[in-house]
Amino acid sequence: MVLKFVFNALLLFSVFTMAQQSKTQNTVLAGGKPVHTYAKLPAVNKAAPKFTLTDVTMKDQTLDSYKGKYLILNIFPSVDTGVCSASVRHFNEDAANLPNTVVLCISKDLPFAQKRFCGAEGIKNVEMLSDFRSDFGKTYGVEITDSAMKGLLSRAVVVIDPSGKIVYEEQVADMSHEPNYEKAIAAVKK
User: Residue 168 and residue 184: Cα distance in Å, rounded?
Assistant: First the structure.
């Protein structure tokens, strides 16, 4: 009888946990197959969650490091993929020329790989930041929780205004697609 009670309690807890996860997880496509992220992106009109990420010189950078500026967070799995590198190049050319705006390109790549990529590509107008030793992916909901890509970041864009409020967010539904650059840039120009 006790064993049956424990089994039922564990079953109920498991069902409850899965139901809670389905409320917060997000589903995106990777290679045409659904994968899940840790949570949904932080909501527009809310304060941006604090973060600490590592730059290419191995120094920590925080949300407060960019206080008073517009931030475009270009989040992606790895600079070593075509779509990810294309998004870095695109933001390097277009969004980086916006006044009082910093583009942060964020991935799980090591800072050494990010620095190598920027040198090889001539990328100078964006800042590369690594989530290799922080909880950014979970805090912003973009960490992939299953599949061969588990632990990497999904493709997303978050725009934060100078007061620290989120003014735009896009979780790209299919990671093989580029984000909507025009909408992200328009959020800064408002």
Answer: 7
Please state, in angstroms and rounded to a whole number, the distance separating the CA atoms of residues 37 and 144: 4
CA 123 to chain centre: 20
Q: What is the pLDDT of residue 88?
A: 80
Higher pLDDT, 186 or 3: 186
How many CB atoms within 10 Å of residue 94?
A: 15
pLDDT at residue 36 tops 80 = yes
Q: Which helix (H) or strand (E) holds 34?
A: strand 33-37
Instruction: Tell me what pLDDT residue 21 has.
Output: 42
Which of the following is catalytic: 41, 79, 84, 103? 84
Q: What would the two tokens of residue 96 be?
A: 């980086």
Give the model's confidence band at 4: pLDDT under 50 very low, under 70 low, under 90 confident, else very high: low
Give CA–CA dist 170/15, Å, rounded.
Answer: 30
Q: What Å distances lie between residue 65 and 38, 69, 190, CA to CA?
A: 25, 10, 23
66 near 129, Cβ under 8 Å?
no
For the question of residue 84 being annotated catalytic, the response is yes
Q: Tell which residue, 118, 185, 106, 190, has the closest CA to residue 143.
A: 106
